[in-house]
């Protein structure tokens, strides 16, 4: 399931870095630890977007000028989402960089029914490889049209699906169909304009800073409906619980599938 958390922005015009997924990851981790439930403190089957609102760019980063900003959070576990929301709304205010945010209300995006393939856009960058200290492997560029690109995403996806315990060995073995086809026109257009669809991003884990290469482009993914549903809810690639690899359905208006969400405020 996928929810939108709407915050009041108490200090309009304040800023955060252009890429601020690591700040959001730290905030989410802090909220989970506040609840003190060990089942969720190290839970990793969730994904989240960047902070959405009316922005202007400066050398400092993104300045937010809307009265409200939105964070999209997704997970296959309703219990996890309710646990996070119940603890988040215990705080009268949370700070994100220089932003002072007050949790206001939550909206639920209606579920998307998956078929044998899905056309997606990247809300946050796809990361293909895990990183380790003093190792530049995760920064290596891999062309999106190659089998290696698809294979790395397939391996991480199947490994994560198996580790949930929600699928039998027979089901996991049946999920062999997996092929990512990038939107070649989009990539060619950006290349011609000398714009980038692949950049180096920071990731923090155990207080250690890593650098990884992330990709942002539209694509079609051919896979079983269960696999498509998993990556839509949990993200695609590595570091999804750090805010990477969040997808949305291409050519759709997410505002047309929003419902008011009343979460269980007693789960914390």
From TrEMBL:
Listed Pfam families: Cas_Cas6_C
Keywords: Antiviral defense, RNA-binding
InterPro entries, A to Z: Cas_Cas6_C, CRISPR-assoc_prot_Cas6, CRISPR-assoc_prot_Cas6_N_sf
Gene3D superfamilies: 3.30.70.1890, 3.30.70.1900
CRISPR associated protein Cas6 C-terminal domain mapped to chain residues: 118-249
GO biological process entries: defense response to virus
One MF term in the entry's GO annotations: RNA binding
Entry's family note: Belongs to the CRISPR-associated protein Cas6/Cse3/CasE family.
NCBIfam families: cas_cas6
The protein, known as: CRISPR-associated endoribonuclease Cas6
């Amino acid at each position: 399931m996928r929810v939108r958390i709407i915050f009041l922005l108490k200090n309009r015009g304040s800023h955060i870095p252009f890429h601020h997924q690591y700040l959001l990851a730290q905030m989410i981790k802090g909220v989970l630890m506040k609840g003190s439930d060990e089942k969720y403190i190290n839970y990793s089957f969730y994904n989240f977007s960047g902070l959405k609102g009316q922005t202007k760019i400066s050398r400092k980063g993104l300045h937010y000028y809307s009265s409200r900003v939105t964070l999209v959070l997704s997970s296959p576990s309703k219990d996890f989402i309710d646990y996070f929301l119940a603890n988040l709304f215990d705080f009268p205010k949370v700070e994100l960089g220089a932003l002072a945010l007050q949790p206001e209300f939550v909206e639920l995006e209606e579920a998307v029914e998956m078929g044998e393939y899905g056309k997606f856009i990247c809300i946050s960058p796809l990361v293909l490889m895990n990183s380790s200290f003093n190792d530049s492997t995760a920064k290596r560029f891999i062309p999106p049209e190659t089998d290696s690109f698809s294979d790395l995403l397939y391996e991480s996806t199947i490994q994560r699906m198996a580790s949930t315990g929600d699928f039998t060995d027979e089901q996991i073995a049946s999920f062999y169909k997996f092929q990512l086809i990038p939107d070649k026109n989009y990539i060619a257009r950006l290349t011609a304009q000398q714009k980038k669809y692949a950049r180096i991003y920071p990731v923090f884990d155990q207080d250690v800073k890593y650098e990884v290469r992330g990709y942002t482009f539209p694509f079609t993914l051919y896979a079983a409906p269960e696999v498509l549903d998993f990556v839509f809810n949990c993200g695609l690639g590595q570091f999804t619980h750090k805010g990477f690899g969040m997808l949305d359905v291409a050519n759709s208006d997410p505002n047309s599938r929003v419902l008011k969400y009343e979460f269980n405020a007693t789960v914390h």
